[in-house]
Amino acid sequence: MKEDGVVKEIPSKSGSFSDWYTAVVLKAELADYAPVRGCMVIRPYGYALWENMQARLDKRIKDTGHVNAYFPTLIPESFLTKEAEHVKGFSPQVAWVTQGGDEKLTERLALRPTSEAIINTMYAKWVKSYRDLPVLINQWCNIFRWEKATRLFLRTLEFLWQEGHTLHRTREEAKAETLRILDLYVDFVENDLAVPVLAGAKPESEKFPGAVDTYSIEALMPDGQALQAGTSHLLGQHFAEAFDIRYLDEDNTEKRPWGTSWGVTWRLMGALIMTHGDDKGMFMPPRVAPFQAVIVPILFGKNDDAVLAKCRETKAQLAGYRVQLDDRATQTAGWKYNEYEMRGVPVRIEIGPKDVAKEQCVLVPRDGSGKRFVPLAELPGELGKLLDSVQAGMLERARAFVRSRTSDAATLDEFKQELEAKPGYVRVHWCRAQECENALVDATRTTPRNMPATDQGKPGKCIVCGKPTDTVIYYARTY
RNA sequence: CGGGGAGUAGCGCAGCCCGGUUAGCGCACCACGCUUGGGACGUGGGGGCCGCUGGUUCAAAUCCAGUCUCCCCGACCA
What is the ipTM of this complex? Predict the structure, then answer.
C-alpha cells in the first residue's frame, strides 16, 4: 500500500499553472463554463463551498452590527452618472438593458456594476436626522462587469459578492468602519480560508472610482502574482453630495453623512483553490469544506454488512461534522481515495473489517502527513483535533510561501533582480509622487498593491527619485 | 482588443497536411464472470448533429469563408 495516485487529467501545478487551475475547477466540479462568453455556473460542490464561506462571513458582518437588505439589479443611467468619478471608472464595463418586451426604454438601465448609486438614492430618502445614523446595510447579490478577458472565479462577466454600504455622522466614525471591515476581512480570509493576506491602503492610482481612501487585502498566488481579494472604501461625502443625502444634526444644522462601502466576491474561491491545491487537485480548508471528512468503507464481499453498519454508525457519531459516507459498491476503495483527494476533502476515514474487529478507524489527512489509527470511541474528538491541525497547517504553509516571495528593494536594479529571483511582492520606499509610481510601473510591469500600516514610518529613500520618505508600499504583478 | 493554439462519444485524444469503405483508440458506461486496505482483470455490448453556418466538389471531420466558445502570451481594467 503506497501513497500515490495523481489524477491523470490534471496537469502539474508547477509545470503549467494556468492549465492546472482550470483543470482543478472543472474536474473537482466546482464550476463549469456557461454558454455565454465569460459566464460560469457554480456547480453544487462549489456552491456548497460558497455557502459555507457566506455563512461565516455573514456572521461576522452581523456580529459587527450590520443588517442585510436587497436592492435591485437594474439601475437607471441617470443615477449611475450622478457621481462623476464613479461613472468614469465604471462606464467601460457596464452592461445595458435598452428594451423591455417589444418597447424601447426611454432611459437605459444598467445591470449593476456595483450598487453605490441605487443604495445612496434610497439612503437620501431614509436619512433625515442624526438619530437615523449610522446606517449599516449589507447585501449579497450578483454583479455584472463587461470584462474583456475572463477566467473562472477570478474574472467573470457576472459574479456573486457581498457589498456593505454604510453612512456615519463623522469622518472619524466612517474611517473606523472602513478599517474595522478591513480587519474583519483579514480575520475571515486568513482564519477560515487559510489564505494569508496583505492589508493596507491603496495609492491614489488604485483607488475605487469615487472613494477618498481605498484599502485592500491582497493574496499572493503560487505563480507570484497578487490577487486583490477584497476592498474597503472610505467614500467621504462624495456620494452624499451626489445623491443629496442630508441630516439634521444635534446642533440643528444640516450636514452630510460620511459613507463607506466594502466587498468581497467569489474570487476568494479562486484564491483558495490556487493557494491550497496541488498536483492531486483541490484542497479544502476544513472550516469551509463542503465535506470535512469522507468515510470510505473497505469492502471484500464478506462481512460487508458489518463494515457498512459500522460506517453508518460512525457517520451518526460524527453528526457535529460535515461528513460524507461513500458506500457505493460500484467503485473500489482506491478509486475513491483518489477521487476525494482530487475534490479536496480534508480528511478521509477508512473503515474495513480489521478496523471493525479492533473498534478503530484509519484517518488520512489530505495534507499528506500520513495515516493514523484512532479508536472509534475517541473519533469525534480526534477528528476535531485533526481538522484544526490541518487548517492551521494550511495557513502556515501559505504564510511561509508569502514570506519566501517577499523582497525588499532600494534601487530599480535590485527591484528587477528580486522580482526575477523570487516572483512575488517587492517592498519599496516611495515618495508618493505619481511620476515616481509611473516610472516604476513602466520599468517593472508590476503595479502598486498597498501600504500596510505596520510597514509605515520607517525612514528611507524613494526607490525612484531618492527623496527621503517613510512611506512603504508593496508592488507585484497582478491578476 | 492584438498575436498564437484548440473544439471529433461523458472525459482524454488520434484521424485533417494529401477529400473517397461502416470515423478510431484509452478511460468511463451496460451485461456476465472474476476481484476488492491506493484509480483491478477478462469476454461481450451501447453511445457520434466531427462547435455552428454557409461555400467548393460526384463526394467534406478533412479544402475555403464566416461565426461562437475555451486556453496561452500581451494590451486594457476593480
Answer: 0.89
